[in-house]
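Long-time lurker. I teach an intro course on protein structure, and each term I like to show students one example going from raw sequence to a predicted 3D structure in token notation. This year I'd like something fresh instead of my usual example. Would anyone be willing to generate the tokens for the chain below so I can use it in lecture? Attribution to the forum is fine with me.
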Amino acid sequence: MSLKHLKTVLDKNGSVSTSLEAIFQNAATISDFAAGYFSRIGDLLLRLDLQAIQKMVETIIAAGNRGNTIYVFGNGGSAALATHFANDLSVGVRAPGAPPFRVVSLSDNLAVVTALANDEGYDHVFVRQLEELGCGSGSFGKRKFAQCTQGPEICRTYRRRHHRVLRL
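-- Reply from a regular --
Happy to contribute to a lecture. Here you go:
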């Protein structure tokens, strides 16, 4: 692999990691690419904040134990991840005899997503659905739980409309 062609990106800690594009461009074989890709994934996994993961899991379990509904959403590939995550929570991790998590992916109804994007603007797509499901001003506390998987613009829109922070 030539250093001249190696593209790098700085992560938030300032260390250099190899970009996937550089791995692809500099791989002579599929095996080279696979080795570089798996090495990159391994590096990323080692940098995960395990305490943040612990907190997220505890928050989700607590919401489930309270009988709250968990809302997930995303754009593009993240929409597919939201759907998969909703499936995993509702079916995949259910313990025998335990009640299932109540989880809804707001990305799944294409007609609603595209209508809201067209009529109100894309930054309102998920906020409006949360409002329609009773997560608006005054009702967000004990009954509902929202997982904001999208960018800050959605949280800002929610805050502007309801003068409160979308619970993460």
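Some talking points for your students: Confidence is low (pLDDT under 50) at residues 1-14, 137-150. The longest helix spans residues 30-46.
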